[in-house]
Design brief:
Blueprint (H helix, E strand, L loop, with lengths): L1 E2 L6 E2 L2 E2 L3 E3 L4 E8 L5 E7 L10 E8 L5 H14 L8 E7 L2 E7 L6 H6 L7 H20 L12 E4 L4 E4 L37 H18 L12 H8 L1 H8 L4 H10 L10 H10 L4
Antiparallel strand pairs: 1-4, 2-3, 4-5, 5-6, 6-7, 7-9, 8-9, 10-11
Helix pairs in contact: 3-4, 3-8, 5-6, 6-7
Length: 291
Amino acid sequence: MSNKFATSASNGDHPVPGTLIDNDTLELVEIVDTSGYGIVYRAVETFIKPNKKPKTFTVKVFSCTDGKRSNHIREASLQYHVSGHPGIISLYQVLEEDNHMYFVMYYANSKDLFHQIDQRCYLGNDHVIKSVFKQLLDAVDHLHCMGVYHRDLRPENILCLENGLRVAISEFGSATTDRRSVEFRTRSIYHSPECQAGRYASDAYSPMATDVWSLGIILLNMVTGRNPWESATADDPIFQAYGRSPFNFFPSVLPISTAFNKLMIQVLDPNWKTRLSLHHFRQKIESISTF
């Protein structure tokens, strides 16, 4: 690994922009995200054929000295396993150079779903919401058919193309192949109640049902631009209010249709065993004309 602009190939725990990798065929041009695990760069080819534009990639970089190499390898293997679907960010290769691991991936040019929701790109546009969300449903169905359950679906982990009209899932660090899990997850708006309390084997939950819950919260974000509560836990008073009166809760706080309210009650069922399945979720989305 070399660098065109600096004598040092790294700055702290990550390479500096301008660093060359993969036998100097890829240049890390700029850092685009530091919010999750690893540092994410936009990278371009350095060897360009005549009359051709250089290809652009997303490159996610981890330190090989952080003691989590096996976790990074596992994440890469799961993402590579499900790559090839239009709703999944494809992983092309994994490199290890100079104490760093590099995931070379497809580049999505319109930021992430969080940005699109924050810019209110979907508000009031039922046709676009339905089109984009069905892409997400199809992508998650692909994951589940491949035996992979994401467990960290949220707008920041869904990358966008065509100004948010196309979406693709990324970030497989929390993914699992276990159909039942007892792993306790950290508090998040997008995590289901059972995976925030599954501390013991007797509390085993379904990662498949957890993904459905996360999709429900994401859809609420797209439709309303708001979150329904901070976390689906016993110490969140707003979530507890929802639990006491699910049918009346959403219409009292969010501008949604009756049909959408009925759907959300089934998708955001606190009991994962009776929660709506992904298949039936998609069927009901097809039948909704107004969110």
